[in-house]
Structures
1.
Amino acid sequence: MASSDASTDMFAPPINRAMKVLDRSFFQKTIPTSAARIFNSKDISRCRKELTASRETLQNSRLDPVRPDTDQERAQKGGKCLLLRPEVVHNDRTTWSPKLRDLEQDGTLGVIPFQLNLDYDYFSYSEITSAIIPAPEKKSDDEIPQGFALAGHVAHLNLRERYWPYKHLIATVLADKNPMVKTVINKLDNVGTENAFRTFQYEVLYGEDNMDVELREQGCIFKFDFAKVYWNTRLHTEHERLCILFKEGEAVCDVMAGVGPFAVPGGKKKCFVWANDLNPESYKSLVDNIRINKVGDFVRSWNMDGGDFIKKASADLLKSEHQVAIYPKTKFSRSAPENVRKPEPIKTLVQPRIFAHYVMNLPASAITFLPSFIGLYSSSNPHLPSNISIDEIKQLVTKQGLPMVHAHCFSTKSDDNVAETKEICEEISRQLGYEITPETPEVHIYDVRDVAPKKRMFCATFRLPEEVAFREI
């Protein structure tokens, strides 16, 4: 942005509300200003420092104040000048600061007129779209769309109806101003309501209809078809927040794992992750991402219903035996590869028999899966191994503790979230048949993000109550 001393309008792009196809050449603007001609190139750094201190130079993060001299002969010899803010008039010394006058009087510089030319490349996405799209008629109307979600090379818009006539203009400018964007799409329906797998119908507004994306998160590579699986880049901080809770050697049950944003980083941390997703395409990508990130020793994958998986995985873990030897990193010698011996393991991680965490990242319905935890370690769970008694399981629980459950959900939106926290706890209590309150130890209702003007995403974390886990049905 231009400095506060300069008029904002002076650096704004020209306006054309009738533009239907983007004309980049239209966005040309010349700003009459002044420049300090530096007679000796050795003085450029000093002059820039002193004139910046006196607030004389043009302060604009998108413009380099050091320019070739306007005189071609001087410029060919390396002559430079410093852009000054528009309020400094070259032939009106009353607009000059004392410092600028001193530098001019001692022959260090001269003040000359300068025509500053701006073009399409200078103006931002926000400035261009504001110049071609009519402003909202009422304050209550939607603002001109600025944000978008990015998944690899695909930019994902969710345009309100009033912007549909300008959607191709918006997409083209967005791609121009974001070099990593090759495809721009617009969502046509609501995720989680029209499709159980949280996928959505879309239209391509710019570029090819190529939805095979690759991106990085938490030091991991994720590849998937964005049209066939669920991915939300805005949840990266939530992915990181929960993964920080996982400790090396713990067992984690990722019930609705998607393509692996919790499972794969968990495997990188040397956690034993059992990951599941009902969507066959998500499962396929999950398997590929486990392989790509080389976490197959720690992460296993399933493709089944989440409720069934909770009971089956918990029972199977009791009888599953698995361990991973951890070796020190060694340097490979190309000149003498035969001399590189396999080192002794530093330690061996043994897979626990009880999960430390259950992650349920399906906010539209995760809480409705909580009844699957009722009787998890009782004889009413048909998957429990017959050779392990309930008393033995209770001994394991006494030693390790019952797992923490992290269930994502939606609720309303208020300033303090007090009512929402209470309502979420009441719904958890109803699903479990056991009272959970905001005051219950180890209960935390975390505010994840806003998803709509009156809708917010939360993560309800609580320790699975013993009365629920061992309840006979």
2.
Amino acid sequence: MKLADERGMTTVYEPAEDSRLLADAVLDRIDGGRVLEVGVGSGYVAARVDSETHADVVGCDINPAACARAKGEGIEIVRSNLTDPFAADSFDAVVFNPPYLPTPPDEEWDDPLEYALSGGEDGRRVVRPFLADVGRILRPTGRCYLLVSTLTDIEAVVELAETAGLAAEQIAEESFPFERLVVLKITQKNT
């Protein structure tokens, strides 16, 4: 599977400070059960959850190169758009580092890495449909761990979760010169 495009640029999101923050935040909160990493990318977060917990981990990604890369890391993979193919009540935890960089339409490019980076004009283009559906695939006591940035407007993301019948609380954060990254724990409101 081709992992670079014709320009020699990578086609799979490589682990960075956001990936490490998300992995570190979830490792002591997941011990077992069925776990899905949406947008698995390189497989870094899923591989850490798989190797450092007792969870049964599956990853999904829209990018075929990312699926191949994560599969090479030993992760069970489903090529999909977000949570579309998964059955209701099938996961104890869902982990997602979505594309969150606000990107004006005239600055977007049609590229596999674009899917891993661009969150549309407000940074929430992918977060909206994800939050609208993640409650469906979570078991009643399931948790979702979502990484967001101040560039994406964390309060707007919390409001999207609430609109979807979910509750969100901040469990980890790290500050950088240009943004603050936050991991939100998201649950069904009735739990």
3.
Amino acid sequence: MNPTILFNHYDTFVSEATASLPPIADATHESVHEIFNNYEYPVSSWPVIIDSEISNKLEKMCVRLSALLRKIPACYFKNDVKKIADFYFNGNEMLAQFVLMCHEKEVEIGSRLDLTYTENGFKVLEVNIGTSIGGWQIQSFDALIRSMHSALSSEETSANFTAINTQQKYAEFLIEKIKNYVPGIANEINIIIVGLPKVEKDTKMVSDGLYFFNELIQKELHKRNLTGKVYDADPATLQFTPQGLFLNNIQIHSVLYFSFKDTDEIPPILTRAFITDKIYFPDHIGTAMLGDKRNLGILRTLAEKKTFSEEDNALLLDCIPWAAELKNQEVTFRSQTTNLLELLKTQKDQFVIKPAAGFQGKSVFVGKFLSQDAWEKAIEESLPHAAFIAQEFCESLNFHAPNNENEWTPHKLIWGAFGFGNNYGGVWVRMSSSKTDGGVINSATGAIEAIVYEGK
């Protein structure tokens, strides 16, 4: 049988009873939290079922890569402000100095690895850092997906399939980090969220998530005999004093940016509050440096130089594809030294070009899916702009999944695995028909999302 998204559990899930299931789940179902009734991406009625071996591999990669990324400024740049400024910040040494000040606080933050599952195992395509990482929403469809499959809902078998609750894991992580990094907390924790999307409800504009996040956070606060609230506020309304950061007379203990676009203009008041230990701020100005896609190539280079432990070096060389900054330079690829631009032009099917700080699959060029002329044009147009990387193309295995006609056909998968500090936060999948994916698999470009369970 061809590999399917159900792995070893195909016969358990596929039967006459499930043959008529719609391929896309109904997001308006009563079991789905109301704020996700207008969820913008299609969610598969079918789950992805993995085993503990796959889950353990994902956990190891999430935890170790996050920790090793934080070593790049010291291990690769020797904490040289000018080198860091030139590489990440267009020569802005003042910004680089502030970034290093934030980075040196060694504050644990959340991350999401985007991976493809190849014939040689998982390969990490990029690391997304900070609060704005998506994918955690899929957990709100758990009850609905379970209700559609007897193996997930019956008393006899439901316990055999578990899914890590990413939302709960993040809430637990957030509260613990606030308690660790902000001294003097008594019995109350208050949080500001910036960048929540807005929707029209009951003829008035409300935050499409503030109520949800309050529910989530307050549940975890209650477990710890704490009180507090989540606020949606403009950072310009905050006041900073020697006693802390305040919204009116309410002390704020953490600020979260749910929109990556807003992090380009972080007000100085938040940096001051963070540096003086008044708030836990996972989206500080050093966060962008950790999320730069060129860092994967740097980690691979450091592993080749045996910078880390033998185990970490082996992990990095195994899971990180070859990559290099896109510029006119000599590189060594598969033991052959040549000019990078010539290499790309002569072996286009082997490479992908992407921006170092891109989001949602934008400006990503996959050589295998472009004509020679279009590929060379992509190279020429990318060179003069913000930093781009050339990355070895790692093709996903085909996994059969239902298409829009409910036929089981080959799909390509991108796995989004979450890490919160030293804690694994689960995984979610985006999948696209092999006939239509075009090499870029992203929710924003039409992929279908799927919830992942670990089966016994």
